[in-house]
Design a protein that fits this description.
The complex is a heterodimer of chains A (202) and B (56). Chain A is mostly helical and 202 residues long. Chain A contains ten helices and no strands. Chain B is an all-alpha fold and 56 residues long. Chain B is elongated. Classes of the chains: A mainly alpha (202), B mainly alpha (56).
Chain lengths: 202, 56
Amino acid sequence: MALLGALTPLVKWPRKRLWIEAVFIYTAGGLASALAVGWLLGRTGTLLVHFKSVLVWIVPLGAVIFAARDAGWIFFPVPERKVQTESIWFHQFGPLQAAAMWGLHIGLGFFTRVTYMGFWVLVAALIITGDSSFGALVMGCYWLGRALPAWVAPVLTVHDDGKAGLRMMADATEQRVLFRRLHLAGLLCSALVGIFLALGGW
Amino acid sequence: MELAAALAAKPAGLQRATWMFVLLCLLLAASLARMDLRYELLPLAGLFGWIQTGGL
């Protein structure tokens, strides 16, 4: 969200084109990272093909456990690096280069905060499929979902005060319950898909 | 004070955009389910990605 706070005000600059370029570069950079990570995860899965009959149950089981965590029934910490990308890059390298670096960094997925466990369900699913093209496709979709708020952030501002990032943050704080419930629903859907796939073969 | 006012405001933009995105994911999921059940992971991945950024 801090990143949105850095990118979104660019829309106010005399050259709106700068904002478009920055967000486009951010999206493209992250997509490159995400595709590479997804491809590698799928590739990793080919090494575990002998354990596939057992591993296929990790996705539904994991999704249910994570859903129970979201519902507040159990608690365990999210496996994550508790770091965000470097906001100082904006001042060091300028908006375009910083956007590219932010995209490349965040798109890797594992090296910044992972607040929601759905990411780990996807990682497990991609390893189990053992299909690098499919892995790249799924992580690409994950990234596009992740980058889309940067595109729509200027539209979400209610007042013309250039504080889109702040307002998004205020929104996010108030809507955290909504996101938590949506995430819970997403995890339960993942569990269902995982069960069907485990029974029918990945 | 300006910052406090901005943070205290309750614009529903993010919520509306999120529901629109969820609707898009559901439509995508419904159409992809006919092709291959594995493809159901695509809209779910998009949803998880949106939540990861929006819900931070």
